[in-house]
Specification:
There is one protein chain. By secondary structure, the protein is α/β, with parallel strands linked by helices. The chain has one domain: Rossmann fold. It is 40% helix and 19% strand. It contains six helices and five strands, in the order βαβααβαβαβα. A five-stranded parallel sheet has the order 2-1-3-4-5, with helices on both faces. Helix 1 runs parallel beside helix 6 and helix 4 packs parallel to helix 5. It is globular.
Amino acid sequence: MNILLISGSRNPKGQTARAAQAFLAGATDNGARTEIVFLPAMKIERCRQCDENGWGTCRTQGRCVIEDDLAGLFEKIKRADAVVFATPVYYGDLSESLRAFLDRLRRTCWHRPRKNGLEGKPAVGICVAGGGGGGSYACVVGLEKLLATCGFDILDMIPVRRQNLEMKLAVLPTVGSWVARGLGGRNS
C-alpha cells in the first residue's frame, strides 16, 4: 500500500503536521509506504480561467496549460493507492496552497467520465483548526465537495480543533492503520 499525504501547511512541526504524522504512524505500522508533499514548497499557481468561458485545455484535454508542479503531483496521486489531504483551517476554509491545487485539479478531471484516473481513488481529509479552534467542520465540508468533484472515494473526513487535538492524535493512527490494512476491508 502506497499512501501519499498532501499537506497544505507551511509549518512542518505545527498542529497539522502533528495530525498528519499521527495518521502516517498508523499506516506505516501496518506496512504502508508513505510520502509527504508540502504544497507551500511547490510551485502551484492559481487557475487562470484561460478562455472567455473560464475554461481552456483543462476542459477539452484534461490538462492545464500552466507549467508548474501540478502535472507531476497529479502523476504521484495516480500512482498512490490512497491519498490523504491535510490542511490547516484558515477562516473556515482550506489553506491557500491546497485551495489553489484542488481548484486546478478539479478542472483537469472534470471533463472525463473516469476523472483522469482519480475515479474511486481512496482519500482521507484532515482539517486542523488552531487559534480559536473554529471552522474545522466547514473546512471538511468544502474539502469533501472538492474531492468528490474529482471522483475520489472519500473514506473519512476528520475535523480537528485545537481543543481536541490531543484526542484526535490518539485516533488518527487508528484511521491510518485502517487505510493501510486495506481500506476497511475493501482491498487486500
